Amino acid sequence: MRKLKNSELDRLSPDAFKKAHKTPLIIVLDNIRSLNNIGSVFRTSDAFLIEKIYLCGITATPPHKDIHRTALGSTETVDWEYAKDTLALIERLKDSNVKIISVEQAENAIMLHDFKTEPNTTYALVFGNEVKGVSQEVVHASHQVIEIPQFGTKHSLNISVSCGVVIWDLFTKLKGKISS
C-alpha cells in the first residue's frame, strides 16, 4: 500500500465546489466559542458538500486567523452567513420547509443510529455551545432532537467531533451506501 499524493486525490477546485450539487444539510452553530471548532466545522462541511453554515450569536465569523488555521481555505468554498439570533434563524428556515434537528441530549431524543432521513428533505443540524449546548428555546423550536450514543464516563463530545459524526452518518443515509 502507498499513500496517495495530494495531486492524486482528484479533489474539486473551489469553482467546481461552488457549482457542485450539495448535500441537503445546513449546519447551524449556536453560540460556539472556539475558533478552532468553527474552522473544523468548515473543513468537515467542505468534505461532505454541505449546503451552508450559519454562524449564530457569539460564534465568530471569517476572516479570522484562528478559524483559517483549521479551516484550511474551506471558508472560501462553503457558503456561510452570520445570524445574530439563532431562534429567529430557525423560524426562518422552518418557513422555508427545512427540517430542524438539534443535536443534544434531551428527553425523547432519537439516537443517531435510529434516525431515518426522508427523501427530498433539507435538514438543518443545530450544534450548541461547548458548555451549555443548544439553547433550550432552540431545542423547543426543533422538529426533532438527535443524540449521539456514548458509552464511556464522559457525557459529551467536542462540538467539531459531534459535527463530524452526525454529518457522516446523515451523508451516508442521504447518499446511500458510499463506495470508495
Please explain how this structure is put together:
The protein is α/β, with parallel strands linked by helices. The protein has one domain (15-175): Alpha/beta knot (3-Layer(aba) Sandwich), CATH 3.40.1280. Helix content is 33%, strand content 20%. The protein contains six helices and seven strands, in the order αβαβαβαβββαβα. The protein has helices at residues 14-19, 35-47, 65-71, 86-95, 136-141, 159-175, and strands at residues 23-30, 50-56, 80-83, 99-103, 110-111, 123-128, 144-147. Strands 3-2-1-6-4-7-5 form a seven-stranded parallel β-sheet, sandwiched between helices. β2 (50-56), α3 (65-71) and β3 (80-83) form a beta-alpha-beta unit.
Number of domains: 1
Biggest sheet features:
7 strands, parallel
Class inferred from helices and paired strands: alpha/beta
**Could you give the distance between the termini?**
15 Å
Strand arrangement across the biggest beta sheet:
3-2-1-6-4-7-5
CATH superfamily: SPOUT methyltransferase, trefoil knot domain
Shape: globular
Radius of gyration (CA) equals 16 Å
